[in-house]
């Protein structure tokens, strides 16, 4: 192997290393529950990377005391004033709809 080939091989390994590190990096998204519902009601994340939702319910004047994301088997209670951590990895682009336990208050996670 000559020097040039070796340099190319090292470069290729670096590129692969960087992209897999990027894939592993979590995406933290803060969502509040207020009298207006889930705020922000629409958030955007990238597919193939773990998502960490940090959800805090800030009011008792809401029926959104739970967050249900059926496609990912998520059904979490949202105690008042406590930040609930919800983790999942969206595998493909699309729009994920979540809602309160009764499906009245809604939010969207756009996956790019
Ligand atoms: Cu509800």
Number of strands: 9
What value does the average pLDDT take? 88
Q: Choose one word for the global shape.
A: globular
What is the strand content?
35-45%
How do the helices and strands follow one another from N- to C-terminus? HEEEEEEEEE
> Any idea of the CATH class?
Mainly Beta
Poorly predicted runs: 8-18
**Helix coverage percent:** 10-25%
Number of domains: 1
What CATH architecture do you see? Sandwich
Structural class: alpha/beta
**Total helix count?**
1
What name does CATH use for the topology?
Immunoglobulin-like
Largest beta-sheet details: 4 strands, mixed
Structural overview:
With 112 residues, the protein is of the alpha/beta class. The protein has one domain: Cupredoxins -  blue copper proteins (Immunoglobulin-like). 20% of the residues lie in helices and 43% in strands. It has one helix spanning 3-24; strands spanning 27-34, 37-39, 42-45, 51-57, 66-69, 74-77, 83-88, 94-99, 106-111. A four-stranded mixed β-sheet has the order 2-1-4-7, with no helix packed on it. It has a three-stranded mixed β-sheet with strand order 3-9-8, with no helix packed on it. The N and C termini lie far apart (41 Å). Mean pLDDT is 88; it is low at 8-18. The structure holds copper (II) ion (CU). Copper (II) ion binds at residues 63-64, 100-102, 104-105.
Question: How would the blueprint of this fold be written?
Answer:
Layout lengths: L2 H22 L2 E8 L2 E3 L2 E4 L5 E7 L8 E4 L4 E4 L5 E6 L5 E6 L6 E6 L1
Parallel strand pairs: 1-4, 3-9
Antiparallel strand pairs: 1-2, 4-7, 5-6, 8-9
Bound molecules: copper (II) ion.
């Amino acid at each position: 192997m000559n020097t040039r080939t070796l340099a190319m091989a090292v470069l290729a390994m670096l590129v692969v290393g960087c992209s897999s590190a990027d894939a592993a990096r979590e995406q933290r998204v803060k969502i509040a529950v207020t009298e207006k519902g889930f705020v922000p009601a629409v958030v955007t994340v990238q597919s193939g990377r773990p998502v960490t939702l940090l959800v805090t319910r800030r009011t008792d004047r809401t029926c959104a005391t739970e967050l249900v994301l059926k496609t990912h088997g998520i059904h979490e209670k949202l105690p008042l004033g406590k930040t609930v951590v919800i983790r999942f990895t969206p595998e493909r682009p699309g729009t994920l709809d979540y809602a309160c336990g009764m499906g009245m208050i809604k939010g969207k996670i756009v996956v790019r």
